[in-house]
Amino acid sequence: MTFSFILFILISLPAQWQPSGLNLLPDTQRVASISVLNEDIVWCISFYDKTPAPVPSTTIPWVFLTKDRGENWEINPIIEIEGRICQDIFGVNDSTAWISTNGLTADSLRGLFKTTDSGNSWTEKFDGAAGGGLIHFFNDLDGIAIHDQFLTHTIDGGENWENLSNNNLPLGDYETTVYTAANNALASSGDTLWFGTTRGRVLRSINKGIDWEVFDTPFENNDVIISTAFRNSQEGIIISYSTFFQGAILFDDNTKVAITFDGGETWELADTLLGFKINCMASIPGLENKFMGVTNGLSTILTNNAQTWQNFSYRPYNALEFITPELGWVGNSQTSTDFPATLYKWEGIVSSENSIAKSSLKINIFPNPFSTTFHFEMDNIDYEKYKNDDLKLDVFNILGKRIMSKKLIFANSNILFPTISNGVYFYILKSKNGILSNGNLILHH
């Protein structure tokens, strides 16, 4: 079975991703992991986006928690792990959570910490290499932590941890796991876990992380699997936009995708998504066959088992998780003073059955970037088709606020932009029957 991609633009409101907790984080922070417990409770961690190795002794990560669906946030510096970063967070309830920590050194400053007072204070519960990466609890007692080629587990709620590293992870030389967001690297369904490696393979455990099998994929043996997502025990997706070469990770702007329908034992290669660097993927509970991906920049994509992809929203970045089809969260990092680090909350229906082929409409906007005015040009055949349908060009800022609306009465128009600050804006070309096209506008005085 071979799958090919068709890119679509989804008919959707442009403001579905709403900022939550603006000015919540210090500058230059990166949201590294999210743990969504229910519709009200969300835990997140962040650290300095460009932390060097080894981690400077003055580095302090942050933990933040909402108990009311993002209306209010509790934010605390994690003083107990000064000189480390946090890689993953796993929330237990509104007062208890676990984090993994890492000093970005070969063999030290890795460990697991626990809070029982909503993140105000933390206690180290495990000191070892396995505590530097991914963490997952199956229930109140059974948990697992993985980093590089190291593995530890607990059967008493984390009071004691047993090191399983030497015999239980069937990894080759220089083979490990790499991720942009920890919560999107380790996939779970019941007692089963999956994660991808730097050699294009997938590891699976069906007994809570104790024993592991390794499976080949259609990826090359130097492709790095960045994210793994499963919607149930059988159907999953993996992505890669990087390769492992001479000890270094090299990144590309294209993303390879593969899917499985038998729990990860066999994988089918889908066509490469050209021009999309997907940071991470997540399943959407309650939506048949739906996975969502977010890119390093300004786009959200939705797929139906990698057969159809839809590009339909803006301003996500990293660490993605949905709790229902109508509620999800994503984090980002500060890319400039115009785009501060924050969280975004999705509220509303994720998908629509209405979509049109991106290639069906020929438009051109130039120059882009522009300073005050840009030229809009529409193919004459397309214009004749839609000219009686109330053509309109709407422009929105990154928060989803409409800042301009222009009725198009000609196929070619010079459009004067409002006098506002530099940045990335988003246009939607629509008629009275729906959205025809969308894209980015870059204002630079």
Throw out a few tags for this protein.
2% helix; 47% strand; Methylamine Dehydrogenase, Chain H; six-stranded mixed sheet; Immunoglobulin-like; 2 domains; globular; five-stranded antiparallel sheet; mainly beta; disordered N terminus; 445 residues
> What is the straight-line distance between the termini?
50 Å
* Secondary-structure-derived class: mainly beta
Q: Roughly how many Å is the radius of gyration?
A: 23 Å
Please give the share of residues in helix: under 10%
CATH architecture of the largest domain: 7 Propeller
Q: What is the CATH first-level class name of the largest domain?
A: Mainly Beta
Shape: globular
Could you please describe the fold and organization of this structure?
- With 445 residues, this protein is mostly beta strands.
- The protein folds into 2 domains: 7-357, Methylamine Dehydrogenase, Chain H (7 Propeller), CATH 2.130.10; 361-443, Immunoglobulin-like, CATH 2.60.40.
- 2% of the residues lie in helices and 47% in strands.
- The chain contains 2 helices and 38 strands.
- The chain has helices at 165-168, 380-386, and strands at 7-10, 17-20, 29-36, 42-48, 62-66, 74-77, 85-91, 97-102, 111-115, 123-127, 134-137, 143-147, 150-154, 162-163, 187-189, 192-196, 201-205, 213-216, 223-224, 227-230, 236-245, 248-260, 268-273, 278-283, 290-295, 300-304, 309-313, 318-324, 327-331, 343-347, 355-357, 363-366, 373-378, 392-396, 402-407, 412-416, 423-431, 434-443.
- The strands form 9 sheets. Strands 24-25-26-27-1-31 form a 6-stranded mixed beta sheet, with no helix packed on it. Strands 19, 20, 21, 22 and 23 form a 5-stranded antiparallel beta sheet that branches. A 4-stranded antiparallel beta sheet has the order 2-30-29-28, with no helix packed on it.
- A hairpin with a 5-residue loop joins β3 and β4.
- The N and C termini lie far apart (50 Å).
